[in-house]
Amino acid sequence: MTSMKALVQLMKELEDQLTVCMRCGMCQAVCPLFAETGREADVARGKLALLEGLMQNMLENPKGVYERLNRCLLCGSCEANCPSGVNVLGIFMKARAILTGYIGLSLAKRAILRGMLAHPQIFDRVTEWASKYQGLFTKPVDELLGTSCARIVSPLIADRHFNPLAPVPFHRVRPSLDTNPGSSGIKVAFFVGCLIDKIFPRTGEAVIEVLQHHGVGIFMPERQACCGIPAISSGDTKTFNQLVHHNLKRFDAHEFDYLVTACATCTATIKKVWPLMVQDYPEEVKAKITKIAENTLDISQFLVLNIGLEKVSFATDDNKIAVSYHDPCHLKKSLGVAVEPRALIQANPCYRFKEMSESDSCCGMGGAFNLHNYEISASIGRRKRDNIVASECSVVATGCPACMIQISDMLSQSGDRIKIRHPIEIYEELIIRP
Amino acid sequence: MVNRNLLKEFQKRLGRENVFSEEADRLVYSYDAAVLKPEIPGLVVRPVTSEALSHAVRLCNENGLPLTVRGAGTNLSGGTIPKKGGVVAVTNALNKILEINEEDMYAVVQPGVVTAKFATAVESRGLFYPPDPGSQAVSTLGGNVAENAGGLRGLKYGVTRDYVMGLQFFDVDGELVKTGSRTVKCATGYNLTGLLVGSEGTLGVISEIILKLIPLPVHKRAMMAIFNDISRASETVAAIIAHRIVPATLEFLDNFTIRAVESYSQVGLPVDAAALLLIEVDGHPAQVEEDADKVASLCREMGAAEIRVAKDAAERDKVWEARRSALSALAKMKPTVVLEDATVPRSKIPDMVLAIEEISRRFDLPIGTFGHAGDGNLHPTILTDRRNKEEWKRVEAAIEAIFDKALELGGTLSGEHGIGLAKSCFLEKETSMAAITYSRRIKAALDPKNILNPGKIIGESP
To answer: B213 by DSSP, 3-state: which?
Structure first.
């Protein structure tokens, strides 16, 4: 454990960025957490003031700052709306790392992040084992959404309706791929991501199907690791670095034009967080990361910008499926991607697109935020659910498996009979049409 | 920190979950949007009922604890910076619109209602609440009343004061005082509403507000006039008013601000222009068209290089987007932004604009000037870095020079941000010692222990 003095010194690294906040308070207008609680410590301005207070020795107890800093969805709404352009997420990530270094990781997080996540093979084995036995503790509750709930009273699951682990993870169906570019002349690396691998392998299948259809060469190395977001948002720099290095090795072996993912969070992490956290890496590693980050794209973005979508018009009956779309924060607010996933959906004439109101407001998931603050998370989620229902859709699409989990929970608990899909699956339907 | 027994009493009266005593929870209420030293309060409470708010006031008075009421904490003069060790009462849980009366055109609200949400709710009924301070997306109506907030529409529609028909507020003992009414006319009792509006939390704690509403104007026309000479632009402002035309908004941007906005948002502003006027007229369609034509030809006569009239809503939005992003664009250039609001009689706008340019040169500081030229309320915005001590001294001197000039021109220290802590030491310059003493006597009579936002406006009693 470092001394308080050393902590203050480390915080000074953030000084120039912290000073940019002029305390105007405009973040209060967009913070989904603040909308629920009305507490200044929950909004970016308050957290930035706490970090500055820590830096200026105004506080005795850094733990108080740490707890409040962790109470954040990391949705980036504040940063996207900040008049002074404060680099909120960058500051929060670094501050979490610094404070975790000072306070230490909790035992549970240490076990999960360092014992499991850091070792992709162990992680795979544990989840495969868990997939076999999850039926003992959980039971299916909504066949349309494929959600389950706890069989017995469980503090971990609580009232959640969650998407269970897939019987067979994606990496068992498709361990690896290395195909040459076809008609498109382009080759992409496909970064699968944990949630698609272990919970939504269907989405992964759809990505492969669509890429192959468009004559795109695919490089998909086996034993991919997590993108690192759960580690770095817990301030665990060590595990994060391990995961980044592991992935770099896997993806270094081949030449590819772009790296694509179907997970908003993985894309945002590789594109924005990897370059942000690598100041201590050797120059040649930094250069590799910069190159990968520059060429990383969300699957919808890649298809719209680099390939061009299939233009099919065929007569459909009047019973078009009403579909709406939720903007994942990591796509719209972090990367400005909002048009492309909608284009993917709208390319399929069997669907009728209906915009929901507040489509870009956070679903309340926020990764570990949901685990630690389920009540608030669910309350934010219910607002999203209400907007989905009000749009009168029968399918809601979103480009982030974490959002899919949260929205499934909310829809399933309310018994709404609305399906959740990834936009790439809706686009895939068009392609595999008989 | 307050003592344990008192803490328990607050928890009992307000609910444990609405009383914050931990260090980190208190630190985040030590500041507002003014560039001033933060002070950490001893306790923060967030009452969820009017009754709880009344208990909070009473407990503070009984125990001699300084009380600062806070809405969204967007104050630009330090009005919501608490006394060290005092109590902050956050009103954002008291956020109900209690009534919107279409027949009699008024609304009753709790103090924590967000200004923009209220304006939207009212507009959905075809009614209009004009005060639109820059922070309206987050600011609360209670804060607007306590500060007498303004906005872009002051010229034609006035400021918050002009819309407050009545109030309910707690005196320092926590007793409910009612003043004003739901009627257009009201000659009953002292005008305590007038006393409380703009009192910055020093005379009572507002719990309910009756606001006047007006019909929503049916037609609008916006235009941008481009000038190659700054004085021509400011003289045009005076000329429009002199021709008895009252636009809804008449905004000014100097070259520094134009360049900042353009480099930030590329909305197609003429970066070589010395100044821009953004003008909107509203009201009955026939009158709007006539006024718009008159304004355009006046601008031409006064030497505008170009006039761009917005053809549709999209173009109109573009005009206002430029104005709305002015502060953001300036804020991105330097770490610290000091936004002043010294105001002059509108015929003196040309002199004030020239004076600010001179002050910028004299103190060697970048100052972007934009603002509500039509009502004499400019926002000279000084860009600096508060960590640079030498430069900060020049900033303070420049601020004083701006105040002196505004007063010399027959103006006022603050058009819409309030006096708070930031300007209380300048108050005598504008008023008189007798005015301050008179105000202090009122304060002492109503708040004998001096617990209601002490130190604001009239400073500490000697």
So the answer is: coil
Whether residues B24 and A23 touch (CB distance < 8 A) is answered with no
- How many Å apart are CA A163 and CA B127, to the nearest integer? 47
Strands (E), A187-299: 187-190, 217-220, 258-261, 296-298
CATH of the domain at B197: 3.30.465.10
Distance between A50 CA and the closest CA of chain B, angstroms: 7
Residue B108 pLDDT > 60: yes
Contact A19/B32, CB-based, under 8 Å? no
Number of folded domains that form chain B: 4
Across the interface, whether the CB atoms of A40 and B28 are under 8 A apart is answered yes
Total structural domains in chain A? 2
Percent of chain A with pLDDT over 90: 77
CA atoms of A247 and A226, how far apart (whole Å) = 8
Q: What is the pLDDT of residues A57-94, one digit of tens each?
A: 888 899 999 999 999 999 999 999 999 899 999 999 99
Domain boundary among A88, A103, A118: A103
Query: Which pLDDT tens digit goes with each residue over A293-350?
Result: 999 999 999 999 999 998 877 766 678 999 999 999 999 999 999 999 999 999 999 9
- What range defines the domain where residue B57 resides? 4-90
The verdict on B422 touching A (C-beta cutoff 8 Å) is no
User: Is the CB of B94 inside 8 Å of chain A's CB atoms?
Assistant: no
Residue of A19, A20, A22, A81 to mutate for B, most B C-beta atoms under 10 A: A22
Which chain B residue is nearest to residue A82, measuring alpha carbons? B328
Residue B179 touches chain A, beta carbons under 8 Å: no
What rounded mean pLDDT belongs to chain B? 95
CATH code for position B391: 3.30.70.2740
Neighbour-count burial of B181, counting CB atoms closer than 10 A to its CB (0-12 exposed, 13-18 middle, 19+ buried): middle
